[in-house]
Amino acid sequence: MLAGDPQAWEEFVCAVADVVWTSCTLLCQGDNEAREAFAEVFDALKADEFRRLRRFDGSSSIPTFVALTVREILAERLMRMFSDGRMDEAWTAFEHFFKRDIDRILRRRMPGAAFEETRREAYQEIGLAFVADGCRRIRAYDGTGSFTGFVLQTVDHLTIDHIRRTSSRRRNDDEPRMVAVSMDEAGDLPSEEVTPEALLIGEEEERTLDAAAQALRDAADSLSNTERLYMSVALGSGEPLPAREVARLMGRPVEDVYKLKQRVMGRLKAALEKNPAVKLWRASV
Question: Is residue 34 classed as helix, strand or coil in its secondary structure?
């Protein structure tokens, strides 16, 4: 494809279309915007003799590399909305685009249920900081490095500032304590390093689990009453029961239970294998 074979480009588009579409639907608002972004992404991938694709060095899978590249293309699209002065539209898109990232950074800096209220306060404060002075912080991006990385680093700094201010107001030792980390030190903590790649991988894992759980729920709803009863008896206790015990509880021959198990597990497996998010995850590992 990089050598200019048009057939190879068509094959490449077909191979990564699911990855690109999934990224567009997750990071854009509504189908119309996703379709528009989908076309724009492929134009960007093909531009300048595949300049973006030539960066691939084999250190990750091609689907993961494409997903990260698509994310940055969409981030640049978002940045142009701010540059064009479409502030209301741009901010709505910005919040949708980065909401999961902000939530993840807040949970990383302030883990645990004890800080749930503090995280909500920090989220609101970060949003206000970004929209202040006509989105001054966003417009401060000068093109150095990725726009996504710039935003995530800004979020992390704003989070640390919030922790400092909140910690200084806490005087009751019975309350949970937060440790303020300086901006200079923040980059030296490998376990808390904020990178677009790390956040994307975390997001994908979270979304895949949610999608898998929903796919299983949908598949379970389509089962017959007998099949649902089997699931309830065999799996409802948290630990799978032996077939003979399931047969006793259901009042059925053990041979029927084996057939039920095969049928039910086959349906659930098929539901997972057909799910787009799960397919995308399997292709990337």
Answer: helix
